[in-house]
Amino acid sequence: MDAMTPPTSPLLDLEGRVVLVTGASRGIGAATARLLGSCNARVAIHFGKSRAQAEEVAADIARAGGPKAAVFQAELGDDDERRRLHRDVVATLGDPLLLVHNAGIYVRNPFEETDDAAFLSRWRTTQAVNLESAAHLTLLALPAMRAARFGRIVMVASRAAFRAETDAASYAVSKAGMVSLARCLARNEGPRGITANSICPGWVDTAMARPDVAARKAEIEGEIPLGRIATPEDCARAILFYLSPLAPYANGTALGLNGGSFLH
User: Fold this and answer.
1) H or E segment to which residue 44 belongs
2) How is the chain split into domains, by residue range?
């Protein structure tokens, strides 16, 4: 099944449920939005700056015969923007009972930094966009999930959550926080029929990663037993698994999706 192939099994049918995918104008988020649309989800496509790309993702879903998707802009580092995003999604599509927290930024922030104010600014921005937004948007969605006795939450974390980073600790810590957040939600919300899980990709062929991949392609691929970096579609399929009827008993897990490059 490619990223836009309609489901052939009821186990992949998302039954017209509303799913909010953050950072869905490109990369993993766009591939996920397209795949979920092909599986009968009503997709709320969040974007920060790339409206044209987000609208193209919505058009792709429509061309493939999926339910009408909608696009929503918000700066996820801002509390009020997140509140507005949630209100707009509910008003346009309905309550999102499926959440994919994919939006994220990667900023090098080494401990060798001599300007502590610059270090803290990068640190706080990374945590706000990557981690705090996931917690806040989930909190806003939980009342409807609890009322429905159903909810599925997926964090797009990273191999860095476990492997750590030397010059981007703020990123690694935010991703480790997302893994822990999913586990906290799994324990707290499981009794209400709500699950939370994480995927933890390694290198993925996205715009964020391409400069490093281009400079170190042979080295990076040499560390991966499967011999290639992941595609956004590889990640989208893992996300679909957690959202679909295939995984009703998966709760609090963190799926290493790195081709075997880091095992723990």
Assistant:
1) strand 42-47
2) 10-254
CA torsion 76→186→245→69, rounded to 10°? -10
The pLDDT tens digits of the residues spanning 27-68 come to 999 999 999 999 999 999 999 999 999 999 999 999 999 999
Rounded distance between C-alpha atoms, residue 114 and residue 23, angstroms: 32
CATH number of 10-254: 3.40.50.720
Global pTM reads 0.94
Alpha helices in the chain (DSSP H): 27-38, 51-63, 79-92, 116-126, 133-148, 160-163, 169-189, 210-222, 232-243
What does the buried/exposed string (b/e) look like for 236-261 if buried means 16 or more CB atoms within 10 Å of the residue's CB?
A: bbbbbbbbbeebeeebbbbbbbbbeb
Residue type, 169: A
Residue 21 pairs with which residues in a beta bridge? 45, 100
Q: pLDDT (tens digit, 9 = 90+) per residue, 186-215?
A: 999 999 999 999 999 999 988 888 888 888
Burial of residue 226, with CB atoms counted within 10 A of its CB: 0-12 exposed, 13-18 middle, 19 or more buried: exposed
Q: Are 46 and 19 in contact (CB under 8 A)?
A: no
Active site residue 171: yes
Q: Which of 106, 171, 242, 249 is catalytic?
A: 171
Check if the beta carbon of residue 72 is closer than 8 Å to that of residue 97.
no
Helix or strand run (H / E) with residue 154: strand 151-156
